[in-house]
Amino acid sequence: MKTINDFEEYDDLENAENSRQRPSKTHSHGHSKKVPLSLQAFVQQQDDTRRAFKFTYKAARFEAWWLLDSLGEFYEHQWVADVLRRVKGGKEASVYQCQAGAAVASGGLLAAKVYRPRMLRNLKNDAIYREGRVDLNDEGNSLFKDADVHAMQKRTAYGEDLRHTSWIAHEFTTLQNLRAAGADVPAAHAMTRNAILMDYIGDLGAPAPALGEISLETGEARQLFKRVLDNIEIMLSQQRIHGDLSAYNILYWEGEIKLIDFPQVVSPTGNRSAYKIFERDVTRICDYFTRQGVRSNPRQLASDLWQRHGYQTRPELDVRLLDGDDPQDRALWQKQKNGR
Ligand SMILES: Nc1ncnc2c1ncn2[C@@H]1O[C@H](COP(=O)(O)OP(=O)(O)O)[C@@H](O)[C@H]1O
Ligand SMILES: [Mg+2]
């Protein structure tokens, strides 16, 4: 855990340096900050076990270590043979274009989504999404040990680690589940504590653009709008709401779409904010397609979809989700009891 903190500090430093100026030739030697001991130990240990993993992508120093930690296991299992380039660097995760290893039958390119150390910090704001969902450990199984759940609630270092893994496991299992149900999502191949390996959408030169980055002709827009709604319905049928759906989390490639970015997925039941989150997803999609010439009524549409899948517009409150010390929660509960 100490190492994670060191990593985050170092990550920030490297980022600041990267954004200040274009990296100079001496950049990788230019860190004024001393590398913490725990990081040095970490690197030492990695050197012993994963020495062979050398990749084409020229990563900065911290980033190279983090990639080794996050993707080393993929390399060892021959899921990944090489990291070719960074496709996107985000606040919480970066996505890398990789060459598939021998263990991937389809071969070709893969995308590795690698979470950054700061992800641990941002989990502080995740309460609204976590409500009512089962926590998963790194094999995607429900956490069952009381001690684990307790650690998470108490936010011990070990607990923070579990929460982090749970978040990634949710994205991974959601991709797998939705794909099996027929949704347009990239096939997910493997996960580690920090990363998810999935099909790469795009070609060697560039990743697929997001819908939000392109304009569509009205005919195609109409067709894709229907397709997105079909996907939303598949998600509902699998008890899932994307939670951050927008034209920027839908990739477009050769006339097809792929929905991505699922860590914040929520359940339509068991979360008091579920309908609000769902309506926001639908509205964002409708707004994009309105700009592409396809009009709709987002509120009506959201409500129709919700009810068609058997959910109540005001989802029934699960008493286990209410906080008896919260006056607002007590009022909600009272209202619901009276309404029956
Ligand atoms: N499977 C993929 N193939 C190609 N590019 C991808 C893939 N997954 C993600 N990307 C690119 O990386 C970006 C960030 O990924 P995303 O999962 O949306 O994470 P976040 O938005 O949380 O940083 C996407 O907007 C997209 O450009
Ligand atoms: Mg995204």
List the helices and strands and how they pair.
Blueprint: H1 2-20, H2 37-50, H3 61-76, E1 80-89, E2 93-100, E3 109-115, H4 119-122, H5 127-130, H6 146-154, H7 157-180, E4 188-191, E5 195-199, H8 218-237, E6 250-253, E7 256-259, H9 274-291, H10 298-308, H11 327-339
Antiparallel strand pairs: 1-2, 2-3, 3-5, 4-5, 6-7
Helix pairs in contact: 1-3, 6-7, 8-9, 9-10
Residues 248-249, 261 line the site of magnesium ion (MG).
Strand order of the largest sheet: 1-2-3-5-4
Q: Helical segment tally?
A: 11
Distance between the termini: 49 Å
As residue ranges, the low-confidence spans are 22-31
Small-molecule components bound? adenosine-5'-diphosphate, magnesium ion
CATH class descriptor of the largest domain? Alpha Beta
Instruction: Tell me the β content.
Output: 5-15%
Q: Compute the number of strand runs.
A: 7
- Note the main sheet: 5 strands, antiparallel
Could you explain how this protein is built, in words?
The chain has about 350 residues and is α+β, with helices and mostly antiparallel strands. The chain has 2 domains: about 1-200, Phosphorylase Kinase, domain 1; about 210-320, Transferase(Phosphotransferase), domain 1. About 45% of the residues lie in helices and about 10% in strands. The chain has 11 helices and 7 strands. It has helices at about 1-20, 35-50, 60-75, 120, 125-130, 145-155, 155-180, 220-235, 275-290, 300-310, 325-340; strands at about 80-90, 95-100, 110-115, 190, 195-200, 250-255, 255-260. The strands form 2 sheets. It has a 5-stranded antiparallel beta sheet with strand order 1-2-3-5-4, sandwiched between helices. Strands 6-7 form a two-stranded antiparallel ribbon. Strand 4 and strand 5 (about 195-200) form a beta hairpin. Helix 1 packs across helix 3 and helix 9 (about 275-290) packs across helix 10. The longest helix has 24 residues, at about 155-180. About 30% of the residues are buried. Bound molecules: adenosine-5'-diphosphate (ADP) and magnesium ion (MG). Magnesium ion binds next to loops.
